[in-house]
Amino acid sequence: MIDPFTSTVRGMTEPNPVFAALREGGPVVVADAPAGGPVWIVTDEDLAKEVLSDPRIVKDPAMAPLDWDPFKAGLEPTAAQRPSLTTMDGPAHTALRRAQAPLLTGKRIREQQDRIEELARDLLSSYSGVVDLMADFTTRYPLTVLLDMMAIPRENVDRAVDGCRQMFAGDQFGAIQALMDVAATARDGGIAAELRDRMPPDTPEEEVRYHLFGLIFASQVTTDTALGFVIARTLGTSDGDPVEETLRQNPPAPFSLWRFTAEPIDLAGMHLPERAPILVDIGGLGLTFGAGPHFCVGAQLAQAELRGVETVLRRDFPSARLAVPYEELQQIVLGGIGGSRLKELPVVLR
């Protein structure tokens, strides 16, 4: 049986055989889920778009298999525990998306492009000698950009970096609280204050801060993994466009977040019971940022940040180079929805 959940280390140019095997397995492939039982993985593009828009297939972790350990499965709190854009469904999700999506439209992000590049240049200019950009920059840069847009004082970036690292270390509760505390420092004039104004007036402050936490963490975790590959391609190879090739070959998330059937359904000739877990092979299908009602609201920002780093490296650091051969770089394939991330990225910027 195909196992897409095992963590491995591969070379930069070494293909991952798991995804080819999945696509050869048919439009829906059954695998063993880490938390137990089967998971149905959709690999067909047309079927994927149907699944991502089907109201019978929901995001709320409350519909996960009853015997799943939420921590082992890597689930978010349920929509009842912590309402969020990634766990709500139906009209409630639509209303929240209506409040959040205008914060990160393509027009607004284009207006921020010069500022995004300025922040990238400032951060890169602070490094000297041989620097591993995976050790700090890929985490710090997307946080610096979003906190700047949220009108959160720059001195809080370190706290946000620490909060994200807590999440990666498995301290979900501590990370959420740390990033909510950072969100609480937002001043007027940024998208954090705008989100507060766009929410219903009776929305509890705790809930608003959790939505802001979601923006902060989501903006970091997806861009972080892709940044290393974009930088490596910018400095190490002339094959293709670094951003487009990264989103195609090393997407931030190879699979959709967990989805669950709210009722028994048939999918490509297979019968799925209620609470059946489903993943969609969005990376292999060119649906990097999803599709349907849960299309990533931060897609424009993520692409602007990736393009901004490429632009700054070519324009402001013309002597920048990899400190090791491109082919010797290694990627950690996290398995499951975690994607892959360069193990190290040693670079000489000047």
From TrEMBL:
What the entry lists under InterPro entries is as follows:
Cyt_P450_CS, Cyt_P450_sf
Q: Matching SUPFAM superfamilies, A to Z?
A: Cytochrome P450
Single GO term (MF): oxidoreductase activity, acting on paired donors, with incorporation or reduction of molecular oxygen
Residues of the signal sequence? Answer: none
The entry sums up its family as follows: Belongs to the cytochrome P450 family.
Q: What name appears for this protein in its UniProt entry?
A: Cytochrome P450
Q: What is the originating organism of this protein?
A: Kibdelosporangium aridum
